[in-house]
Design brief:
Belongs to the peptidase C19 family. The protein is built from 13 helices and twelve strands. By secondary structure, it is α+β, with helices and mostly antiparallel strands.
Length: about 500
């Protein structure tokens, strides 16, 4: 196809006009290297003379491009070398017990169970739905430079953030984005940080069912070893301390025993007198452990030792006295873990129901009589006949603090009309009700303390709501935006 002479002459006129006009925008189809350089500089481009030409700099060899991750596998997470902001210490303040307002969804997210990791999935669901745990996790360990898949604390922090701050419609397990890859990083970190010959190594083997309570102990141990600065924060979150006193039934002497520290309560649900499953509710079992423990010991008072000498002469052995021991709480955690011992000495399952209410009042067991109340936020339940097999699920309180959802690996359901029944007897995806094994409570603020806080708020014009005794501000540590400068560097 030929261009008419008239059109060709018009086109040549346009080209001549463009080449003589430095400010005219050259059409893209007429662009050449010389004309584009002329238009950028505003003058006609002049080719340099041979003396003005410079030898081009040597070409630098490009670094090899790192290989892309294989399809379906998450890429290696990295940490920035940029210094992290200063640590916001929980021990300098109080951890908030309110849910952050930055969450973008209200319901739980399901986790894929690639093999026998349902015990991890259920525990993670419970921890992530307990506000005080989320807030405490966001106030510690902000200056780690390890890869996320090699540090349990970093993996927990990343999981907590993406669990509540990403959409539910994200790719599942195995993808390079979404909650699935974050859960995978957590599993890798659990394995990477486990020392050789550690008791938890058995749970890392294939086809071995783990215990959520053992996993919680293992995670706590790993976090404690990171930094001394996190110890007071974890103590306030998890540690429970008791003082024990024993009263001799023969002479009435009272003996104080060393303080006992524990991570929550582990309660037997077998009656010691009848060796049968208990018929008491949860508070009754706690009362039995704290008030009615009987021991056979040797009393060291003068009267009992004299009686012991008589018994030795008559019966050939020292007599033992019955000591009634009571326990009282001296330090209460913000997050209370109550484990029901559902396995006997042979590892067989005890399926007896232990009734409990949404709130647990432990005031009668405190040393100084101060108010101590908890609210149930999540439970772990086990289906199966022994400790080495079966399946774990979780029932959690949703963000509205009213509805309850049951998470069975990837399947999450909120059934109408069941309400707190889903805590007392969680229902699996196959609609089978099973008894709880681990109950996770959050401490409630005493009413007088709330009134004092309101008074302090009204008296202060600026600064923190909670002035410390050393003059520093002890404001509750909240987790709104707690990953800024932490994981997102």
């Amino acid at each position: 196809m030929s261009i008419p002479a008239r059109s060709n002459r018009a086109l040549q006129a346009i080209v001549r006009h463009v080449l003589h006009t430095s400010s005219y925008p050259l059409p893209a189809f007429l662009s050449t290297r010389s004309t584009s350089m002329r238009l950028r500089s505003g003058t006609r481009y002049q080719s340099p003379s041979p003396s003005q030409r410079q030898k081009p700099p040597p070409r630098r060899r490009r670094d090899p491009t790192p290989p892309k991750p294989a399809p379906g596998r998450p890429g290696k997470p990295t940490r920035s070398d940029k210094p992290m902001p200063a640590l916001t210490r929980v021990q300098d303040g109080r951890v908030s017990r309110e849910r952050p307002t930055t969450f973008i969804h209200d319901r739980p997210k399901g986790f894929v169970n690639p093999s026998m990791l349902c015990y991890r999935n259920s525990l993670l669901q419970c921890l992530l739905h307990t506000p005080v745990f989320y807030n405490a996790l966001g106030a510690i360990h902000r200056q780690c430079k390890k890869d996320v898949n090699k540090c349990v604390t970093c993996a927990l922090q990343e999981l907590a953030y993406k669990y509540w701050h990403t959409s539910r419609k994200m790719p599942e397990f195995g993808s390079s984005v979404g909650i699935g890859s974050v859960v995978n990083n957590f599993h890798l970190a659990v394995t990477a940080e486990c020392p050789d010959n550690h008791p938890f190594q058995q749970s890392l083997q294939q086809n071995v069912q783990g215990d959520p309570l053992e996993l919680l102990d293992y995670l706590t141990e790993r976090v404690y070893e990171k930094d001394d600065s996190v110890s007071p924060a974890l103590d306030r979150l998890l540690r429970m301390s008791h003082i024990r006193r024993g009263t001799c039934q023969d002479c009435g002497a009272v003996t104080a025993e060393p303080r006992v520290d524990s991570q929550g309560l582990q309660l037997p649900i077998i009656d010691a007198t009848t060796n049968a499953p208990t018929t008491k509710d949860l508070l009754g079992v706690i009362r039995e452990v704290h008030n009615n423990e009987l021991l056979q010991v040797s009393c060291q008072t003068e009267s009992c030792r004299e009686q012991g000498r008589i018994d030795r002469l008559l019966f050939g052995q020292d007599g033992l006295q019955t000591r009634h021991r009571v326990m009282r709480i001296t330090q209460a955690p913000d997050m209370l873990c109550v484990a029901l011992k559902r396995y006997d000495n042979w590892g067989r399952k005890i399926k007896q129901d232990v009734p409990f209410d949404p709130e647990l009042d432990l005031t009668e067991f405190t040393e100084d009589g101060s108010e101590l109340k908890y609210r149930l936020y999540s439970v772990v339940a086990h289906r199966g006949d022994d400790i080495q097999s079966g399946h774990y699920i979780a029932a959690v309180r949703n963000r509205d603090d009213q509805t309850i959802s049951v998470a069975d690996d990837t399947q999450v359901r909120t059934r109408r009309g069941r309400g707190f029944r889903d805590m007392q007897r969680p229902m699996t995806a196959r609609r089978i009700e099973i008894p709880p094994y681990l109950l996770i409570y959050q401490r409630l603020e005493p009413e007088p303390a709330k009134e004092e806080e309101v008074d302090r708020d009204n008296q202060q014009d600026q600064g923190s709501k909670y002035p410390g005794s050393n003059g520093s501000a002890d404001e509750p540590a909240s987790s709104d935006g707690w990953f800024q400068g932490c994981l997102m560097q």
